[in-house]
Amino acid sequence: MENKQAKRRIVLVPVPAQGHVTPFMQLGQALSSKGFSITVAQGQFNCVSPPQGFPGFQFVTIPESLPESELKRLGMVEFAIKHNKTNEASFKNCIAQLLLQHGNDISCIIYDESMYSCEAAAREFNIPSVIFTTTSATNHASRCVFSKLNAERFFSDIEGALNHSLMAYHPELKEKVVENLYPLRYKHLLPSGLGPLEPLLELRREVVNKRTASAFIINTSSCLESSSLSWLQQELRIPVYSLGPLHITALASSSLLKQDRSCLEWLNKQKPRSVIYISLGSMAHMETKEVLEMAWGLSNSNQPFLWVTPNGDDGIELFSEELSKMVSERGYIVKWAPQTEVLAHPAVGGFWSHCGWNSTLESIAEGVPMICRPFHGEQKFNAMYIESVWSVGIQLEGEVERGQVERAVKRLIVDEEGACMRERALVLKEKVKASVRAGGSSYNALDELVKYLKTG
Ligand code: UDP
């Protein structure tokens, strides 16, 4: 990197979605505490609006980015592809303006792995670039393996493989573990729950292509995913910095929605470790039938519950009088909660989660065991780790049914099995906290990244 000593500005480019914006703002805070100036380049929606606890940060809007209505129309995958196409020229203009404004003082562009079109601006202006993946190391590794196999035409009829099961085509692979990535098996690699296949394959090809990026950042800790991290280190052949969980050291919240803090007062009135907290993240949507079954199961469990429903009532208005009465006696419903504070509250005994990576890290960092209800591939890997590798949760599979919900809540909050999971969760909590403290692996990785950004 040329004239690095003088260059101190980092441009961060997140994907405009809560689960991506949050870790980017946490990374910004970490780098700012090490003396860098931060510019956040964002699209026109799901923007972090200053001032929001980020003193000194510059926020710029990438002009002509796609409107939010396109996300609703196209779905996540096709939106990401189109967003990158429109973003390329627009982002180049944005960087040109920033270079003028800051007298060429841009040390590096750190972009979300799904904002791969940023690389064109980095190349054009000869600015080093670094990729940040906001998902788990295991998820990124699985995409690399899948894309390689796909490029080698391994899945010769992938639609067929998806429709009629991979095993029919490659029966020898049924339970085979992917080399050096235990417990990932070949059957886990096929994408699920993300819509049409062709756009997904295109997006994956782009996301795993590291182009000219010179390093890779992951929001994870080596105490959580050491085998996947070693695998990536070998495979990517550029430095991999695992700095997480970043939220532990972040001071400001980057919630895009207004958090309803009244639930903390409600929690104050509940018994220690008695409450099940339910949140399925910012994107997931449940069918009305499932919402009803869940409400019955939660009420029948006799445990108090705090339930986040960001998309409005999600069928709650369809509750019968009897169910509404039970829910209001035992439960508390909010549209958006201060999640990290909720998980840290002594009344919370378990977390029913869709297993988004941020939620997974936040739960681990508070030692809260989980009920896992993942919707698609990445979340399924996280659920697999929660249940089978770290042994701090249980998975709920198949259709949601009230009896199964009631049993799962009791297993987690009331039974001996749940107490054992909680003990393991507390041990894991101490390990991840130690990794971000002075001398820990994530703490050291941040120092190494800083050195790298300053001196190359
Ligand atoms: N979150 C929150 N309040 C809520 C629910 C979620 O602040 O009521 C935050 C949560 O703390 C996490 C993020 O939203 O940081 C969700 O990210 P995740 O990766 O878990 O899921 P996604 O929304 O990307 O599917």
From TrEMBL:
Alphabetical list of Gene3D superfamilies matching this protein: Glycogen Phosphorylase B
The alphabetized UniProt keywords are: Glycosyltransferase, Transferase
**What's the domain of life for this entry?**
Eukaryota
Q: Which InterPro entries match?
A: UDP_glucos_trans
Please give one Pfam family short name: UDPGT
CDD domains according to UniProt:
GT1_Gtf-like (cd03784)
* GO MF: UDP-glucosyltransferase activity
Query: What family does this belong to?
Result: Belongs to the UDP-glycosyltransferase family.
Q: Which PANTHER family match?
A: GLUCOSYL/GLUCURONOSYL TRANSFERASES, UDP-GLYCOSYLTRANSFERASE SUPERFAMILY PROTEIN-RELATED
The name of this protein is: Uncharacterized protein
The protein's organism comes out as Eruca vesicaria subsp. sativa
